[in-house]
Automatic annotation (TrEMBL):
Residues 264-316 form the PAC domain. This is EAL domain-containing protein. Pfam families: EAL, GGDEF, PAS_4. Gene3D superfamilies: 3.30.70.270, EAL domain, PAS domain.
């Protein structure tokens, strides 16, 4: 804002320079200010409202008017008014002409009370009545002064405008200066920081050209590699190859220096100058110039040698067996998975699963120290016969797995198994003892990609058990059929316990026919399993399993109950308490079961059946070697009146003199003796044997039943030989109990 200038004024008191307009309506300068405002306000960038703007202009109008009348004439005030108008933002391009136009048209008339005011309404515009009188200016003089005032105002206006622009530019350049200084400070700080990082970093930092030449490395990097000498001039990073570099490391590097990637990160081994190994966690970043072209490579390396050694030790411990130092199951499975996943067509493999025979006995009788010694000795022997490319692992207490791979000729599992057994042939010496080592081996041969890990292991396991079942100290080779049998057996065993609860068993009855008159004497109860998956299974398929698992005891009791109840029904239906009897098979487990006698008595009582209606069949083999204690339950039952039959007679060691001591009342002659009589002429030897047995049996007061009678010829022959009872397809196959009744009725008629 311009300062108020001194100098004489012709209109004092109309307002003050501080911007307080004169209050009177009829003030001609107020009118001037109004006109001025209307002309200029639209062209001003001011934030003032028109009223405010008019209030701002009024003192300026007074100053101009005063200057016009001043004596001596002075244009300084106009100069300052020009500046004041710039201050009020009247800086638009058309503003100055508008300002000057109003002055030119109205200043003289509004300032000189004596001069006529031209007003559109034609009214005269009287001057302020309290204004002191001053010398009216001559018209010409007034106009000339007005023009000069306009010039001065324009000059002040322009100068102020320029100063303003200069101030603004200065502010801008001052800001730019300040910014540059800040930027320089920051740059300096970051360079210092970079230097600090570079020098003081615990991490190795190095910069190399795109040709691989090492340009600079920091202390940490030099220390890592055993001194600055390592990075002697001319050394290129491309020389730092190592056999254990990750595959593809070279490709990553090539892409980086070609600008195809910005960085890569790998775990990289190096040899120091002294030959020792250094492992680094290496990050290489491409540095580009300002145009984006690749310029340098920056390497950040972290020494992870110790970390890696620790990791390797932990991994070794996790993948090796402590006792023998051999690889353990984890490592073996890793290698096996790799081999099985290989897609090389020619790649074959062989797996040998070795389990020591009777190792538990060694451990139990000679102690763990000897047991451990034996395992170590076995591991050493086996290791010696395994070739470097083959893998031997200890996978359990006394279990070892070996893996051979390669083209057909080399991947010979059986060959390896043979070598392993040969290696164990000589006894081992432990703590002064000579110990024989025996082992069973299951061998699985196959082709990569054709079989899964689980199947290989299961097959090896099954086959090893086959070798054990065959007497041990041998190897067996896996084959699908044997595996299938074992697996089926296994799955049946699993389903067996719940089958009884679920009512999956049922009984068929096969008639026993009196040979003299062809009448049905009774029937043998033969159990079947209606398996939900496999359909009807015969007893040969599950009785051995039931015996192994002990389920035979409840199952046998169930059969006995069912059969006794059935016999009761037959007898009721036949209205003849003597006619029909039922035969039930007993397993050796049941024979030795403490509640056999009491259970049987209870079953008979519950069914309301007399003991003589029941015949228990026991095989000859089950009784061989049985002493009097073992025979006691049978004798008790026999004493009660239950018939005991010696089943499958002739298949065991038939010590005939022994027969006398047994509490049996019947012999069931095995099918093998009667097969030779199915067709005429009968096998004379068979005839002689059967004749001899029958006569012996009758001498001992035993009745004879023949099994497996399939033809009329057979039946006739056996009747001629004096057999008492017959059973076989010729009469009837095993079937539902109802059928027996119709057979019996048919006989009777
Ligand atoms: P087993 O006691 O010798 O029973 C006779 C077997 O010979 C039955 O076989 C029967 O179907 C079959 N058979 C009968 N007539 C002929 C014939 O003319 N020709 C031929 N080739 N075979 C004939 P199955 O039913 O398969 O029973 C097999 C064995 O299962 C039985 O032999 C018996 O030892 C055992 N078994 C059956 N049921 C039970 C039971 O409830 N408990 C026990 N512990 N064993 C049972
Ligand atoms: Ca039988
Ligand atoms: Ca039999």
């Amino acid at each position: 804002m311009t300062s108020e200038s001194g100098g004489p004024r012709c209109d004092r008191g109309a307002g003050d320079a501080a911007g307080h307009p004169a209050p009177r309506e009829n003030d001609p300068l107020r009118r001037f200010a109004g006109i001025w405002c209307r002309a200029v306000h639209p062209l001003a960038a001011t934030k003032m409202t028109p009223d405010e703007f008019e209030g701002y202009l009024l003192p300026l109008a007074h100053r101009l008017s005063a200057a016009l009348c001043s004596s001596p004439f002075d244009t300084e005030a106009a100069y300052e008014v020009g500046a004041a108008l710039v201050d009020a933002q009247c800086t638009e391009p058309d503003a100055l002409p508008a300002i000057l136009g109003v002055i030119d048209a109205h200043l003289v008339s509004c300032s000189s009370p004596g001069a006529p005011f031209s007003r559109p309404s034609g009214e005269s515009f009287p001057g302020p009545s309290d204004e002191p009188a001053h010398e009216p200016l001559a018209d010409e003089e007034a106009r000339a002064r007005c023009v000069r005032l306009q010039h001065a105002l324009a000059a002040g206006f322009v100068r102020e405008l320029r100063e303003r622009e200069r101030d603004e530019q200065e502010a801008i350049s001052r800001a730019a200066m300040a910014a540059r200084t800040e930027a320089e400070k920051a740059l300096h700080a970051s360079e210092a920081k970079f230097q600090a990082v570079f020098e003081g970093a615990v991490i190795g930092v190095g910069i190399a050209g795109l040709d691989g030449e090492v340009l600079v490395v920091n202390d940490a990097m030099a220390r890592m590699f055993g001194g600055m000498d390592f990075f002697r001039p001319g050394r290129k990073v491309t020389e730092f190859v190592h056999p254990d570099d990750v595959p593809g490391a070279h490709e990553l590097y090539r892409e980086l220096v070609n600008g195809e990637r910005d960085h890569f990160r790998i775990e990289k081994p190096h040899y120091r100058d002294d030959g020792s190994e250094l492992w680094t966690n290496l990050t290489v970043t491409l540095l580009r110039d300002s145009s984006g072209a690749p310029q340098y490579q920056l390497a950040l390396a972290e020494d992870i040698t110790e970390h890696r050694q620790l990791r390797e030790r932990l991994r070794y411990e996790a993948t090796h067996d402590e006792l023998t130092g051999l690889p353990n199951r984890t490592l073996f499975l890793e290698r096996l998975d790799q081999v099985l996943a290989a897609d090389a067509d020619a790649e074959r493999f062989g797996v040998c699963y070795l389990d020591l025979d009777g190792f538990k006995a060694v451990n139990d009788s000679l102690g763990h120290v000897v047991g451990d010694g034996m395992l170590k000795a076995v591991a050493e022997r086996l290791q010696r016969c395994v070739k470097p490319a083959e893998l031997l692992a200890r996978v359990g207490g006394d279990e070892f797995l070996a893996l051979v791979t390669g083209p057909a000729a080399q991947a010979d599992g059986a060959g390896l198994a043979r070598r392993m057994l040969a290696a164990l042939a000589e006894p081992v010496r432990i703590e002064g003892r000579e110990l024989r080592v025996r082992a069973s081996i299951g061998v699985v041969d196959g082709r990569a990609g054709e079989i899964g890990r689980a199947e290989v292991l299961r097959s090896a396991d099954i086959t090893m058990y086959r070798a054990k079942a065959a007497g041990g100290n041998r190897f067996e080779i896996a084959d699908a059929d044997s595996n299938a049998r074992v697996i089926a057996r296994h799955s049946l065993t699993n389903g067996l316990p719940s089958a009884l609860e679920k009512g999956e068993f049922f009984i068929e009855y096969q008639p026993l026919v009196r040979l003299t008159d062809g009448t049905v004497r009774g029937a043998e109860a033969l159990v079947r399993w209606l398996h939900p998956l496999h359909g009807v299974l015969g007893p040969d398929q599950f009785i051995p399993l039931a015996e192994d698992t002990g389920l035979i005891v409840p199952l046998g009791r169930w059969v006995l109950e069912q059969a006794a109840r059935q016999a009761r029904k037959w007898r009721d239906a036949a209205e003849d308490d003597e006619s029909l009897r039922v035969n039930v098979n007993l397993s050796p487990c049941q024979l030795s079961h403490p509640t056999l006698v009491s259970d049987t008595v209870a079953v008979l009582e519950n069914a309301g059946l007399c003991p003589s209606a029941l015949c228990l069949e026991v095989t000859e083999n089950d009784l061989i070697g049985a002493d009097e204690t073992a025979l006691r339950p049978l004798r008790q039952l026999a004493d009660l009146g239950v018939d005991i039959a010696l089943d499958d007679f002739g298949t065991g060691y038939s010590n005939l003199s022994y027969l006398r001591r047994l509490p049996v009342s019947q012999l069931k002659l095995d099918r093998s003796f009667t097969r030779g009589m199915q067709r005429a002429p009968a096998d004379p030897v068979d005839v002689k044997i059967v004749e001899g047995i029958v006569s012996l049996a009758h001498t001992l007061d035993l009745a004879v039943t023949v099994e497996g009678v399939e033809t009329a010829v057979q039946a006739e022959h056996l009747r001629g030989l004096g057999c008492d009872t017959a059973q076989g397809w010729y009469y009837a196959r095993p079937g539902p109990p109802e059928r027996l009744h119709t057979l019996a009725l048919a006989d009777a008629s």
